[in-house]
Each structure stands twice: as structure tokens, then as C-alpha cells.
Amino acid sequence: MRALLGLVLLWSASWNAIAAGDITAVVGGRIIDGLAKQPLEDTVILVKGERITAITNRAEIPDGATVIDLGGATLLPGLIDSHAHPLMAEDDYQTFHLQKSSAYKALKGYRGMQNQLAAGWTTLRIAGDGDVFYANQDLEQLRREGVIHVPRLFGAAHYLSITGGGGDLNYFSPEQGLHADGLIVDGPEEIRKAIRAEAKYGSDWVKVLVTGAFMSVGDDPRSVQFSEEEMKAVVDEANRQGMPVMAHAHATEGIKMAVRLGVRSIEHGRYLDAEGIKLMRKHGTYYVPTIYVGDYYMDPRNGTLRQQDAFNDYSENYRHIFIGLVNQAHQAGVKIAVGLDLGGYNYNASVNARELQTLMEAGMTAMEAIKAATSVPAEMLYREGQIGSLQVGAYADIIAVAEDPLANINALERVSFVMSNGVVIKNQLQK
Length: 431
Known about the structure:
14 helices; alpha/beta; 18 strands; six-stranded parallel beta sheet; 431 residues
């Protein structure tokens, strides 16, 4: 009997050792989990497969576990860019989508997304992109199939625009039969058909240009371009398809119309006002202000770039007003998410972290800015508890920086460790 008991105990110990061998322990100096107000006292994250199984301390690391010791580094959830255009690679974004095939863009986009991932951005929400077809949706399918490692992708393949609006080509003669960069829809029936096509080919959000834009030719960001009847059709059909709506909206009345009709998020919102803020708070509408894109071409850290007149005027005459509006929205309790509105295959993705710096300029604490890039957008995406936080059951999207980002938010420009879905993508810290 004793011999049998001994065999059982030996078998149990061997099984536990085998099971522990499937576990990876990521060890740091502190953990910012994306949820708590302060860093956690525990400093170890246990991972099995693609999920987090425990947040604990060094004494609880199972025997046989693979240990990734990152010293005194700060561990955080993978960052989320809620307004990405990874295939918009040139200044003339309104015609660039016509210059290369969708297959070419998918391959180039794959390389660019690897750069995003290495910089710590493990999830992107695509806000329409520079492609006639659906390269981003194909890349997401390949990610889910385990063929490639890119950030987790949500969003819309294209944005909806009216004829002559921000997504139309307004600088060619009428005899030219070109694909506009947006899907041109006029009236409820065209809107419904376009949304159904987006859903058919893999979009899980609807992007609509409610108002004009700053950078599209022949356009005015202060104009409201979709009628209320058309916007009702957008939201109704999107709801029918189970797709949330992100609304590009600069003009004050366009923002308020979109919020009242039930969009999930307002993008940009440059001419937001007090009533719009109150409505967003009342309806639980998320706000993605994309502040840094207005600074990007002026920022000397980026080298010599083409300075666009629209951004010059904004920077000199309006930026300080806009920062104040974002502060008012934050103080009123509007949920704000980090979105860059930058695009391209080869730009330095570490600059994404500067959006957090601008949110701090608008009144957020460092911890609030980090949550705006983690748990808040995860909630906006209906993925709370899955991404954007370090907790048991969440996907193992873990990044690390050598410094404390609560003391210096710029540390997030220097991400040294990245794990995505339990797979180590980058490790410059391990002892």
C-alpha cells in the first residue's frame, strides 16, 4: 500500500512539474495593471498558453516554470491605439490607395505592424484605411490563424462619406472614374448596402465622416455632411450588423447629432463645446481626441517634415483652445481613449506614446493617461477583461519598460519587452 501511495505521489509530483513547465513567469519590479489606482505590490505574472493565469510574487513561481526576469522593470498591459491608419503611407493619402495593389499593401502593412508591435502597441483599431479592398482584415485573419504576429486588429476597412465630402476625391475632373478613398454613400439605402459589404468582408466597426476633415481637398472641418436621416440609417444598420460606430466629427453640431443618435465614439472633436461634452457624458460616448497628430509635423524630434498649412494654423491659433476642451471633457467624466491618427509603413512607432504626453498636458495624471491606452479602449472595444489589463484570464499582452512611467511618461517611448498572446516578440531586458 505504501509503495502504491509512493507511486501516486511520485506521479503527482512529475505531473505538477510537467504542468509547471508549461508556465512562463514574467518577473518585474512593479506592475501597472491598467485598472488599479496604484502599482501592484505583486511583481510576477504567470502565463500559460495565451492567457494570464496569476498575478503573484516571486515566492509563488512554480517549480519548473520558465522564468523571464526583467529586473526592476515596470510591467504594463499591451498598449491600444484606438485610431490607426497603418496603410496610409504617403502625404497624398487620398490617392495613395490607388497606387499599389491590396496584396502589396498587406505585405507592407505586415512589416509596419511588426514595428507597432515591437513598440508595445499590441492592439489597433483601424479607423478606415488607404486600401480599395480589405488588407487589414486579411492580416487579422492571418493573426488569428497563427500564421503571423501582428497587433490584434479591430475596426473598419473604409470610412463612409457623402459625395463631395471628406472621403471623396474632389480635385479630379468628372470624366475620371476613380475609386475615392472613402465609400461614397448618399441616402439611407446606399448607407445600408455599404455597411453590409463592410461586414461581409470582415470589418467589425463602422467609420463615418459625419463632418468635413482638415486634410482632405475641397473640404471644411466645420461642415456637417451627413443629414440626420442618413446618420439614423448608419446607426440603425450598424446595430443590425452588431457593429459599433466611430464618428469622425469636428463640427460642433455634427458631434452632438452623432452622440444623440448613438455612436460609440467621437473621433477628433476639434470644435467640441460644453453641450457636446454634457451629451457625451450622458450617453456614455467615448472620446478619441487624436491630439498629437496635430503636433507631429511641428515636433522637432521627428526631424524635417513637410509642414502642412492646416496644421500650422491649428498649432498657432487653436491648439491651446482644443487642449482646454479635452481637459473639460476629462473633468466632466467623459471616457477618453488614446488614438494617434498616424499612418504608414515605416514611421517610428515609438512616437505613439506622445499621445499620452498630450493627454497629461490636457490634465490627466500619468496613471489616467496609461489607462486611456489600455483598459479604457478595451472597454470601448467591448473587450474588457480580455485586453488592456493584466488580470487572470486576460490575453497575455504584456510590455515592460526599464523606468517608471508614472514618474516619466516618456519611458513608454522605450519599450524593451513585448509579449503578445503569450509569445515573446521582443526582450532587451532579461538578465
